[in-house]
């Protein structure tokens, strides 16, 4: 920021004093004893007019040209996109006046005060407060620059969500609106979207407003201004921490598609693919299952990256086709069949390890 004129005057005076003292130091001899003596009568009193500092340029010991030259040295070349330090000196109905050291005070419009919704400027700024500002545009015809805080917060918000995505973090955010496609939330001040297919809740979508949901990042694209999140992935990951492949769980049929059925298992959905319903061929899942059916299923795959849980009843059939002829028999023997399935997986793992060792030894 540009110093005030009195500071500039002082700097010029100091420069001349240094210059003069350097000349004297290089040209004068050792001072004589009589040169060091003084008369106390020569010292002006505290209220003497001659003791007061005079800041008029005419008596400052340098010319107007020298002052203008030094002033120009402090006139920074402000450019759009720059970050500058500034001090708030006035809050007005439509924005704030900011001193950034330019010849004319800069102006920050009300809509640029924050990335979040605020009631007034005083929610964010206070008079005499100093902080960083973003220059939005060139000087207008009056030589005034337009500033923003929102742009700084916007850039830092995208940096933050990119880091959160990189860490595969789970965040919590409040649903502030819903539409036909899904739900809207705010993350670090940015608007995010949860597709309907990634909302996993027992409430209907319209009743989610005001709810805080755990979320995972699906897409973070600043250039396209796209921030897409998944509630289902966050729930599945949480649930997966307590689940394992080969485990039998109780679920309820929530939806049936031509390719399979979606089973709710404690608040998260797993897919029972048509090929995993029975050893026997099935034309459509509707021939075997109905919405709201309670059933036992076994977990055959946990994909935390995509937030998917794959289920099977085929692996629980004591005899091929039992899911078509006697589903209750399958559910009664589910744990017994699951134990056999786990043993089979363990034996396959051991065989694979032995083969790996044999290959390594033969190389």
TrEMBL record:
Residues 30-44 have a biased composition (Basic and acidic residues). Keywords: Repeat, Ribonucleoprotein, Ribosomal protein, RNA-binding. It holds the Pfam family S1. Residues 1-57 are annotated as: Disordered. Residues 20-29 have a biased composition (Polar residues). GO terms for cellular component: ribonucleoprotein complex; ribosome. SUPFAM superfamilies: Nucleic acid-binding proteins. CDD domains: S1_RPS1_repeat_ec1_hs1, S1_RPS1_repeat_ec2_hs2. It comes from the Bacteria. SMART domains: S1. One of its GO terms (molecular function) is mRNA binding. One of its GO terms (biological process) is translation. Residues 81-150, 168-232, 246-314 form the S1 motif domain. Binds mRNA. Belongs to the bacterial ribosomal protein bS1 family. This is 30S ribosomal protein S1, homolog A. It comes from Prochlorococcus marinus subsp. pastoris (strain CCMP1986 / NIES-2087 / MED4). The gene is rps1a.
């Amino acid at each position: 920021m540009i110093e005030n004129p009195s500071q500039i005057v002082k700097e010029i005076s100091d420069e001349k004093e240094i210059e003069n003292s350097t000349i004297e130091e290089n040209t004068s001899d050792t001072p004589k004893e009589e040169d060091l003596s003084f008369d106390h009568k020569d010292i002006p009193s505290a209220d003497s007019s001659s003791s007061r500092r005079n800041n008029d340029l005419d008596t400052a010991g340098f010319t107007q040209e020298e002052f203008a030259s030094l002033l120009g040295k402090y006139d920074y070349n402000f450019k759009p996109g720059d970050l500058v330090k500034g001090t708030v000196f006035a809050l007005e109905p439509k924005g704030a006046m900011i001193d950034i050291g330019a010849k004319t005070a800069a102006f920050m419009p009300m809509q640029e005060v924050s990335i979040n919704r605020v009631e007034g400027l005083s929610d964010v700024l206070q008079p005499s407060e100093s902080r960083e500002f973003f220059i939005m545009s060139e000087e207008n015809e009056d030589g005034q620059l337009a500033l923003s805080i929102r742009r700084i917060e916007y850039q830092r918000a995208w940096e933050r969500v990119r880091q959160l995505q990189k860490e595969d973090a789970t965040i919590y955010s409040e649903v502030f609106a819903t539409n036909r496609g899904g739900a809207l939330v705010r993350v670090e001040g940015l608007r995010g979207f949860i597709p309907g297919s990634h909302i996993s809740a027992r409430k209907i979508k319209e009743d989610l407003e005001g709810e805080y949901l755990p979320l995972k990042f699906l897409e973070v694209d600043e250039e396209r201004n796209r921030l897409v999140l998944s509630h289902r992935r966050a729930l599945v990951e949480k649930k997966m921490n307590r689940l394992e492949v080969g485990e039998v769980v109780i679920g309820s049929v929530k939806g049936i598609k031509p390719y399979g059925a979606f089973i709710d298992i404690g608040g998260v959905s797993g897919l029972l693919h048509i090929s995993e319903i029975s050893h026997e061929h099935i034309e459509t899942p509707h021939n075997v299952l109905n919405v709201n059916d309670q059933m036992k299923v076994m977990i055959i795959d946990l994909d935390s990256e995509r937030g998917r849980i794959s289920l099977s009843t085929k692996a629980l059939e004591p005899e091929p086709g039992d899911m078509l002829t006697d589903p209750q028999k399958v559910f009664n023997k589910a744990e017994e069949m699951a134990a056999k399935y786990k043993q089979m997986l363990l034996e396959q793992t051991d065989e694979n390890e032995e083969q790996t060792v044999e290959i390594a030894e033969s190389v």
